[in-house]
Design brief:
Blueprint lengths: L17 H10 L6 E7 L3 E4 L5 E6 L10 E7 L3 E8 L4 E4 L3
Parallel strand pairs: 1-3
Antiparallel strand pairs: 2-3, 4-5, 5-6
C-alpha cells in the first residue's frame, strides 16, 4: 500500500525505511519487475535504474459516490497490463526493456 520510491508518489507518504526495501528489491531485479502501491491521491509512475516499474495507483477515496474504482492485472510474457476501471488509469509495462 505504501510507495517505496521517492519518484513514485508523495515523499511524505513513503515507507519510512524505503531505502532498505529498495535495496532488497534491487538485489532481485531479475525477478522483481514491478512494485504497485496506493497511498497517493493523484497516482504516480517511475521506471527506476534497476528496471523496476513503480506504480502508485490513484486513491479510490477520491471517487464520486456510487462509482467503482479498481484494477485488474493481466500478466503476459513480454508485458503487464494494469486495466483500470473508474478513477484508476490503465497502464502497460514492457518487461523486456
Amino acid at each position: 500500500h505504501i510507495p517505496i520510491h521517492p519518484n513514485a508518489g508523495d515523499e511524505l507518504a513513503l515507507l519510512w525505511n524505503y531505502a532498505d526495501v529498495l535495496n532488497i528489491l534491487w538485489e532481485f531485479n531479475s525477478t522483481v519487475l514491478a512494485y504497485i502501491a496506493g497511498h497517493s491521491h493523484e497516482g504516480a509512475y517511475f521506471y527506476d535504474e534497476k528496471k523496476i516499474h513503480h506504480l502508485t495507483l490513484q486513491a479510490i477515496v477520491e471517487c464520486e459516490l456510487d462509482t467503482n474504482a479498481f484494477a485488474t492485472i493481466h500478466v503476459y510474457k513480454e508485458y503487464l497490463i494494469i486495466q483500470g476501471i473508474g478513477r484508476i488509469n490503465t497502464y502497460r509495462f514492457d518487461l523486456l526493456k
